[in-house]
Amino acid sequence: MLILILLLAFATAAHAQMPGPNPAELEAMKKLDYMVGHWQGDSWILGPGGQRMTSRGSETVQWKLGGKVLLVEGLFKSPAPDGTEFTSHETLAVISFDARKSAYNFRTYTARGGAGDHELKLVGQRGWQWTMSGSGGSTIRFTSQFTDDGKWVEIGERSSDGETWQKFFEMTLTRVE
After folding, report:
1. Considering only CA atoms, which of 156, 120, 119 is closest in space to residue 138?
2. Is residue 150 a contact partner of residue 174, using CB atoms and an 8 Å limit?
3. 147/58 Cα distance (integer angstroms)
4. 3-state secondary structure of 29
5. 70, 63 in Cβ contact below 8 A?
6. Which of 59, 70, 99, 164 might form a disulfide with 95, Cβ 3.0–4.6 angstroms?
7. What's the predicted TM-score (pTM) here?
């Protein structure tokens, strides 16, 4: 019984000494408040041979851990040749702010097995951009803008030289909640 009391006392003391959320992180995350909600709409992406594949879907953005992170869940479906639909894009991402680096982190996961850590940079009043390495040494960047009339417009571009960009993706969503 004495051991149980000591363990409980130690656990309580350790919990009381745990630091709370960093105020700088919480303040930085508040700058992304415009993203929170449920969004629906359409997208297109250029597939092999330059064929345009369309999809319809949604993104849900929620505060988690008391405002310390944003959870972003995306699910898009495309029409199949037989008239049914298939899941063409399913993602999960976590956005956080690292006060030590003074930078946003964008941790992404896809249902197809992809994952990565990317720096998310704020662009304009209500937008952001992130990049990743593509095939053949190319760079891929995604830029999102959130409009005053409740639209989320995102484009994806590819560049082999970092100066000339070719759009291969566009998504336009409307806030529904």
Report:
1. 156
2. yes
3. 17
4. helix
5. yes
6. 70
7. 0.86
